[in-house]
Alcohol dehydrogenase (Marinobacter daqiaonensis), 394 residues
Amino acid sequence: MSRYYEFYCPVKVISGDAALEHLPYELTSIASTRPMIVTDQGVRAAGLLDPVITACEESNLVIAAIYDEVPADSSTTVVRDIANLYRQQECDALIAVGGGSSIDTAKAVNILVSEGGDDVAAYSGAGVLSRPLKPFFVIPTTAGTGSEVTSVAVIADRERSVKLPFTSSFLLPNAAIIDPRMTRTLPLHITAATAMDALTHATEAYTCLGKNPLSDAYATAAVKKISGALLKVMDNPDDGQGRLDLAEASTMAGIAFSNSMVGLVHALGHATGALCHLPHGLCMSIYLPFVLEYNLEQIREPLSDLLLYLEGPQVWATTPASRRPEATISAIRHLRDELHHRCELPRTLRETNKVTEDQLDQIAHKALDDGAIMFNPREASFKDVEAILKKAWG
């Protein structure tokens, strides 16, 4: 663990029942009168914009524009179209309502409407932005990515077939609004995959080389909330408290990993997502136990701690200290089995039916080039990564 660290999270979190009704106050407090909503068709079809619009209307706030066609894998052309609409309608703030794609898209739109121009690729990379952007609010509708509290965004550039990363503290929203109404209609398989995404964020944050005492506090709290709420929500999707626990855990895990980093699970996930178009949360769920096994000897101490948050004090106390790290990995495997039983969430690459065995080499090469691997507690060669992939193939 590094002796020196920095921790930064300036995002105001507004959470709980009727959290949405506080949005108009936040907008008027910064003199915004013409906000724009960025979302996708699924969110709109599920009726999730209604409470947002109603809350604004009741406070005599006009939503100046709504863009509801953000695709699952957003691109630079979509960002350009939304920025043009923002300018035409003379909007003065952005509200992202949705999952990771809508939030990342709104972050990129904010770069264009604040900095000018049509080519968001010009601002790609780290440290390119030099001043604050327009007011920006996020209302997550999935409990997984943690994008509402991270300073990164990824947008596809279709013409060049690359994914452009954007990193700047100026991308952070003014506030994240966590309201249990927004995730209640989430289908079970997406609830499961996004919760495993958050669990992976927390677990990697707690075991990676960049971990620190403040990120640890958020990471362990997130693990505890997920392990306590996930199966309850799977059995009773209308469990408002459980939904809120998962949403808060996602935010906490986002704060944790954006202040500590992640590791090999993410490197493999990014590579698999790019090559095989598997959803990110699903990749996280598949790879997590295999990578923890690979890292085991380097992370015995933090893995021992996590057993307490995953299984509770009784199991932790009755498990011999020397066996706790293995018990943590077993608990994660058991959770994946339970999710597979309830919604057929794949546990291996083979079970996805979207990855072929001859793609494993390509995934391994791509994963070794991914920045996340630098913070993995154990170094990995091509052979090591290939061996993990063969196990994950199933």
